[in-house]
């Protein structure tokens, strides 16, 4: 295979995973899409607002885990479920997401996902631990729909600007997480010490995004029922992906890097506060960690698209994350800003690399869609075990040394499977 040149990113754009990969619009559906694209500002605003919601509801919880646990008398293990349950349903929802997109179209399902997200955020703050976890189910399912549908929407409506649009939505996603993490504790104080009001505030962001998508649903309504299914676009490729060793290597890298990230999302502020840091400072550090991820998420995919194999990048991102975790183990407060920065670059680079490997290891768009579904489903199901296991081990040992040591083992495993996934091969 020839070495990718400067045109490689553009070629990769053609393989962006698409939840509607097996359907093709009829004349009526194409006309409705042209009508939608006649309002690009409205579409861009909708994409940005939806993307802001894709991590905010998750990141807003972590700085308040201590208060939430105290309100319900939760153990460390039970507290970890507050973040593990949504991550679990990121995987379950990813498995189910393509069906409603094919049946009803992307715009209505995106609107429904935003409404479901807002409802889940509100359910989560009801005065019951069951509602806390039930709301997490709704939040995780809604974000899973957004995760799966957004790349396909961009591929469909901005085929010539997919790279820049992908940067826009990923940047907005990280910005939403950063603002939510930084604002959670100040909002709690502003609302008189109510963590419930602080969390519920983020339902407003989902509501605003839903309002922005409503006109697009009305404009695109002509698409519904006008799709033509592309029979056997790759009829056996769905089964083939699940039987491919390379697909499993890509999937495991996706899952392991998600695991170490969601352990941090769940427990980073708690690790700092358990070592004497104030909750507000821990929240700011957590927000800083999210912000720094932008650098890695932007640069690593650009480098990956210009390389024949991505093994040096696998070594780089896993080493950065491993070094950051070692810092959290040895000097969590003294080096807090440094560890947050190192982890942030590594986390952002790892997720960017994982998503890019899905594209680069796929030979066509239908394969990319199926590999994306496999990687997100299995990956997030695997990642959901991270916060739960870390909380259980912390409760059993009374400290963070052993949980962090176990995450370092995850980093080693990610290095091994990542080196295999980064070879210049196709599923």
From TrEMBL:
It holds the Pfam family MFS_1. Keywords: Membrane, Transmembrane, Transmembrane helix. The chain crosses the membrane at residues 36-58, 78-97, 109-126, 132-154, 166-187, 199-219, 246-267, 279-300, 312-331, 337-360, 372-394, 400-422. InterPro entries: MFS (IPR011701), MFS_Cyanate_Porter (IPR052524), MFS_dom (IPR020846), MFS_trans_sf (IPR036259). It is found in: Cell membrane. It is a multi-pass membrane protein. Residues 39-426 form the Major facilitator superfamily (MFS) profile domain. SUPFAM superfamilies: MFS general substrate transporter. This is MFS transporter.
